[in-house]
């Protein structure tokens, strides 16, 4: 397992931008998939964006074109650049890491503690 620490959340007005960071406790080069999830009050946790070790990305339809996920293997960090934020993006954002084995057997992998993002209208 790997420890993950998120940062970069905060309060922003609609239309603004934030960049979230997820720092891992060890090298992420071998981690198969890293992703950002979010959970709004009263709702289930949902996938926002994910990136594989080869650099392939996948986004939720609601954020496509506004959010960008990237990874810096040298810094053991994954980022989520969020632009054109909307009030409906308000949620706690969680970082997730899965090994190839965890992906294959559909396990949860490792989670960070979450960072709050609040978008005001």
Helix content, binned percent:
under 10%
Q: SS-based structural class?
A: mainly beta
Radius of gyration, whole Å: 14 Å
Q: What is the helix/strand order? A: EEEEEEEEEHEE
Number of strands: 11
Strand fraction: over 45%
The mean pLDDT is 95
CA-CA gap between termini: 39 Å
Supply the number of helical segments. 1
Keywords:
121 residues, mainly beta, 7-stranded mixed beta sheet, 1 helix
Question: Could you please describe the fold and organization of this structure?
Answer:
- With 121 residues, this protein is mainly beta.
- 4% of the residues lie in helices and 50% in strands.
- The chain has one helix at residues 100-104, and strands spanning 4-7, 10-13, 18-24, 33-39, 46-52, 57-59, 67-72, 77-82, 91-98, 110-111, 115-120.
- Strands 2, 4, 5, 6, 9, 10 and 11 form a 7-stranded mixed β-sheet that branches. Strands 1-3-8-7 form a 4-stranded antiparallel β-sheet, with no helix packed on it.
- The chain is globular.
- The N and C termini lie far apart (39 Å).
- The mean pLDDT is 95.
Provide the fold topology.
Elements (H helix, E strand, L loop, with lengths): L3 E4 L2 E4 L4 E7 L8 E7 L6 E7 L4 E3 L7 E6 L4 E6 L8 E8 L1 H5 L5 E2 L3 E6 L1
Write a compact overview of the structure shown.
This protein is mostly beta strands. It contains one helix and eleven strands, in the order βββββββββαββ.
